[in-house]
Structure formats: C-alpha cells, structure tokens
Amino acid sequence: MSIFICYKFFFLFFPLLVVGLDDCTTTRCSKGGPTIRFPFRNKFLQPEHCGYPGFDLYCDKSKTVLELPFSVKVEVKKIDYASQEIHLHGLDGCLPQKLLYLNLSASPFQFLEDDRLSNYVMFNCTAVERKIYNNIPCLGVPGYQVYCIPSYSHSDDYDLTSCIKIREISSVLWYTLDQHDLHLKWSEPYCGKCEAQGNICSLDTNKSRTQCTNKPKTHRSEQRGDLINAGATLGAFLSVGSLVVFYYVYSSSRMKKKNRATIEKFLEDYRALKPTRFSYAEIRNITNQIQNEEKSVAKQGKKFTWGTEALLTATKKTT
Ligand SMILES: *[C@@H]1O[C@H](CO)[C@@H](O)[C@H](O)[C@H]1NC(C)=O
Ligand SMILES: *[C@@H]1O[C@H](CO)[C@@H](O)[C@H](O)[C@H]1NC(C)=O
Ligand SMILES: *[C@@H]1O[C@H](CO)[C@@H](O)[C@H](O)[C@H]1NC(C)=O
C-alpha cells in the first residue's frame, strides 16, 4: 500500500519536477491559449533573459494578459511568431475609453494595418433614435449614447443634434472601437525568418542580439511539454488503474470469502445431514465454483463424475 501511494505521488509531482528544470520553457496560460516563448515571456514565472523588453505577459486565470503603455490591459488571443503579429482583445471594461491612454510609441508594437488608421471624433448624445451606426455601447450611460464619427467625414452627414463633442481619438481602426480588437505587429526583435524555418530564436549570451539556433527534430521545450503531458497522463492513468485493480482484488477476495463461507456451511450441513435452504444465488455460486473446479480437474486429465463425492473433493480443493 505504501509503495502504491509513493508511486502515485511520484506521478503527480513528476510533471512539476520537469517544469522546474528549464526556466525558458515554452508555456501557455490555458490549454487552447497562445504559446508563450521568446520574444515573449511570462514575467511572473520566467527570468528576464527569457524574453525581450516590452514583451512581458502574465496569466490572469486562463487569460494571457499583455499590458500596453500606459496601463492598458489587453488579452492576447493569438501570437503569430513567423509573421510577428499579435491579436489582442480588450480586457476589463471598455477598450475605447482606454484608448486615450494607449501610447504605442512607448511599446515595441505598431498597428498592423497602419495604412488604414483613422481619426475619430467622439460625441456624447441624448439617447434618441438616430441614423448613426457608429455607436459605442460600453461608453453610454442611461439617457445618453456615445458615437465615434470618422473625422474625415462631414458631420453634416450625421444627425448630431443635441450632441456634445467630447474628444478626438487619433490613429485607430474601427474594429478596435467596435469589437475591442487590436491587431499589432513588431519588427524588433526580428525572429520571423528564424521562426518560419522552424528554428529557435533567443537572446545571445551578450543579451544584445538575438540568435537563431537549429532546432533538433522536435523542439526541446515542446518535447518537454509532451513529456510533461505524457507524465501527467501516465500518472493519472496509473493512479486510476491502480485504484481499479485494488478495488477488484479487494472485492473479489471479499466475494471469495463469502462464497467459501457458503460452501463450508453447505458441507457442514451435508455432514450433519440436516440440509438447510439455500437461495438460488447461493446455489448458483456453489455450482459455478464446482464447474470451475470441474474444468481444472478435466484439464488435469481426470474423469469427473457428478456426485456428492466429487462435490466434496471439489469444494475441499477450493477451501
Ligand atoms: C508616447 O510615449 C512616447 C515615449 O514614451 C513619448 O515621447 C510621447 O510623448 C508619448 N505620446 C503621448 C501622446 O503621450
Ligand atoms: C455624456 O453626458 C452625460 C450627461 O452629461 C454624462 O453623464 C456622461 O458621463 C457623458 N458620457 C461621456 C462618455 O462623457
Ligand atoms: C559581447 O559583445 C562584445 C562587443 O559587441 C564582444 O566583443 C564580445 O566578444 C561578446 N561576448 C560574447 C560572450 O559573445
């Protein structure tokens, strides 16, 4: 039993032991979440040299979080390491409201479609029926609605009676205001070619440049990830397997004891010549045991005759 517990614990903690060995291992915040590897790192789990400045991520439960300057928290939906693109989604509350504080020039990222960026003018309007589709629901309060009108358009084109201009938002894409999505790219560090070739990009020992190293047949860290998964799966499988075997052995020995007791009672009664009533199930159990015995006797090449004597020999053998 103690060995059983020991190896169960070994398989439970084995994955943790493996994780502890290499701190720059590829990680992720959830099973379907984006992989985190150079130039990104998990800033709470991995040392600085695992990533590049400005590429610090962390996990908020199962979400992968990036903080853009200044204090704009966004969720990372997808990282394309080969094309050096990152897909982000607004986190906690209203992204359009926080765009005022977003300053990408203080980050390593740029807008992906920077040729399609527009400036918008934000209007605070009384909530009446208007033929304007550029509503930003999360900025509205009861009785008021907020619209973002592209600054290149003529405000005469819009029904802006009883509206107040609040502010201007420069250089954004409509889907950022509408769907709270941000698609960014980075050019530094340049690892795209290395990634596209399936190699490993990392900081060189001088920590001033990146280096591209050949990946063995499978990525070491991914191999490790597989090993961790394999360890966890095997551990869980063996644990469950052990429990099943343990229960089976336990219950079958209990069953045998019970059957034996019934047979002994039968024999006792037979010897005392005072037959007792047996339930159908009990008789079936006894005959099954006798039949098993019959098979094993037949295997040994002995002729088996159905009778009390045989029954006695058979049952004696099982006890
Ligand atoms: C954005 O950040 C850069 C670098 O920190 C700074 O020079 C610039 O003034 C900032 N722009 C705004 C609009 O705050
Ligand atoms: C719009 O105006 C109303 C009334 O003055 C105000 O309560 C609300 O906060 C304003 N909304 C924005 C986003 O400024
Ligand atoms: C680090 O960089 C300096 C200058 O760029 C170079 O002289 C030196 O050999 C490098 N050291 C290593 C360990 O690569």
TrEMBL record:
Q: Which reaction does it catalyse?
A: S-ubiquitinyl-[E2 ubiquitin-conjugating enzyme]-L-cysteine + [acceptor protein]-L-lysine = [E2 ubiquitin-conjugating enzyme]-L-cysteine + N(6)-ubiquitinyl-[acceptor protein]-L-lysine
Which residue ranges traverse the bilayer?
Answer: 227-250
Q: What is its main location?
A: membrane
Question: Per the database record, which ranges form the Wall-associated receptor kinase galacturonan-binding domain?
Answer: 24-88
The cellular location(s) given in this protein's UniProt record come to: Membrane
One GO cellular component assignment for this chain's record is:
membrane
Q: What is its EC number?
A: 2.3.2.27
| Molecular function GO terms recorded | polysaccharide binding; ubiquitin protein ligase activity; zinc ion binding
A Pfam short name? GUB_WAK_bind
Q: Which residues form the signal peptide?
A: 1-20
**Pathway named in the protein's UniProt entry:** Protein modification; protein ubiquitination
> What are the UniProt keywords, alphabetically?
Membrane, Metal-binding, Signal, Transferase, Transmembrane, Transmembrane helix, Ubl conjugation pathway, Zinc, Zinc-finger
Membrane topology term: Single-pass membrane protein
Q: Which family does it belong to?
A: Belongs to the RING-type zinc finger family. ATL subfamily.
Name of this protein: RING-type E3 ubiquitin transferase
- What is the native source organism of this protein? Fraxinus pennsylvanica
